[in-house]
Amino acid sequence: MDIFSNQKQSLRTMEPPGDFGSVTAILFDFDGTLAHLNVDFGAMKSGLLSLLSGYGLDTGAFKNLYALEMIEAASEELKQKRAADSDSFRTQGLALIKEIEMEGARKGCLFAGVEEMFRVLKNRNIKTSIVTRNCFDAVNCICPDIESRCDAVITREFTVRVKPHPGHLATALERLKIGSGERTVMAGDHPMDINAGRAVGAYTIGVLSGFSTEDLLRDAGADLIMEKITDIVF
Ligand SMILES: [Mg+2]
After folding, report:
1. How far apart are CA 94 and CA 152, in angstroms?
2. What residues does 206 pair with on adjacent strands?
3. Ligand 1 centroid distance, CA of 141 (Å)
4. What share of the chain is helix, strand, coil (3-state, %, to 5)?
5. Which residues, including other chains, have CB under 8 Å from residue 149's CB and lie 6 or more apart?
6. Rounded to the nearest whole angstrom, what is the distance from the C-alpha of residue 29 to the centroid of ligand 1?
7. How far is the CA of 106 from the centre of ligand 1 (A)?
8. What is the pLDDT of residues 13-39, one digit of tens each?
9. Residues 143-177: pLDDT tens digits?
């Protein structure tokens, strides 16, 4: 399946934003989209909740947040209560997350065909960027030459706000020197990828190689669902 030729007709009938045949850039989530999903989010969350508890905070108020947002919210609360603890909590929380990310990265790898997919996209003059909440060291551990394969790698260190905030995608578009998301595709395995993509006006592709079921991605509003990311060119 090649979305730039065979599927063009069906994509048009789905009324994607803009002409899909003239896509100028594709933004990719990383874990579960380009690489096997090995990050133990359960361990990350329970580790953070236990850290919160150690700082005397009520875990109930934070347990439904994503890990990075949990750290931000808790360190903000600590800042109000005991300012001296805020920075040390943040440092410990981020170290805990990174340790779990690196553990996942050491046993991780890209999905088959991803490197070739980037070559094909480059030959078609389509700009590419990775947009991930993961840290650069973990992405670089899984794919050491990632920066030569795509035009931008926007891990959490390189953006002020991370997904699901659309500012993360806006940072990538800015890096690619693209003014708007209209002729852009956002592809990912999580509803937050779809939500963030829609927020910048991108055409959104949900992939079934990671976190989500088809229903979850459709409910988030994905324009297209694919079994795996390399289906966009092969
Ligand atoms: Mg993902």
Report:
1. 23
2. 188, 225
3. 16
4. 50, 10, 40
5. 115, 118, 128, 143
6. 5
7. 17
8. 334 444 456 899 999 999 999 999 889
9. 999 999 999 999 999 999 999 999 999 999 999 99
